[in-house]
Amino acid sequence: MRGYKNFESDPHPGDLRHLLEIGYTENVINENGYPEPKDVVVCKVWAAITDAGNQHYRAADVMNTEAVINFTIRYRPDIKPGMWVKFQDAKWYISTLGEYGFRRNYLGLKASLSMGVSG
User: Fold this and answer.
1) Whole-model pTM?
2) Which of 16, 33, 37, 77 is 20 to 30 A away from residue 117, measured at CA?
3) C-alpha to C-alpha distances, 5 to 28, 46, 58, nearest whole angstrom
4) Computed over its alpha carbons, how large is the radius of gyration of the chain?
């Protein structure tokens, strides 16, 4: 994800006005012995949101679009890359974490949403 905006200065507490769910997906074995994905919500938090850019690329004859957003939340040690953020009824997958000055006040989540359209 090179070329996208990085985390900016500490947000104003009033900027944390978007309610998000953060969680992960685990595979649970059903009664037939097959894995079924199950979403586990870790927390609901208020966040500041900054558009970090997007890109379009073609791979395997499919036009792909990737949007990237920086979410800023109050610091939590239980958030890890690979988790998802539910924002506007879509799951944004966290790729990078960033701390603001390593003071453990705020945590930056760089998350992306990819969509492909065959053509």
Assistant:
1) 0.79
2) 37
3) 37, 21, 22
4) 16
